[in-house]
Amino acid sequence: MIVSIGEFKLKKLTLLPEFLKLSKQIYNQAQNSKGNLKAQLDNKGIKTFYSFTHWDSMEDMLAFVHTDFHGNALKETERLCKEVSFLHYETDEFVDLTSAKEALKKNSQTRVIKYES
User: Fold this and answer.
1) What 3-state DSSP class applies to 23?
2) CATH number, position 17
3) Residues of 41-75 as b/e, b for ≥16 C-beta within 10 angstroms?
4) Which residue range is the domain that position 14 belongs to?
5) In total, how many domains does the chain have?
6) pLDDT for 28-68, tens place per residue?
7) Is the pTM of this model over 0.85?
8) Helix H segments across 1-117?
């Protein structure tokens, strides 16, 4: 099973409604995607947001990433966010969100992208 966690730091509060709408669309897409076992959204305050999913396989996760709302969101990330962090890893068991956030902060495989404000 593949666990994926993403952290998104919003560029400015005026982008919040658009970001939340897009997040909900992506969440719904994930829940209805082949191979999705779990999808969850979370936040820390009003400028830091998390996406958290479990997938049957890497192939299923990648098929989701590049289609529909998520595929379109990839083109909008730089405009909406000042920083994004991503991590995906293989596991035999479901992982809780707290553990996934901890892995995101500490794992050397975490990819962090910082955009200009």
Assistant:
1) helix
2) 3.30.70.100
3) beeeeebebbbbbbbeeeebbeebbeeebbeebee
4) 2-114
5) 1
6) 999 999 999 999 999 999 999 999 999 999 999 999 888 87
7) yes
8) 16-31, 58-65, 68-80, 97-106
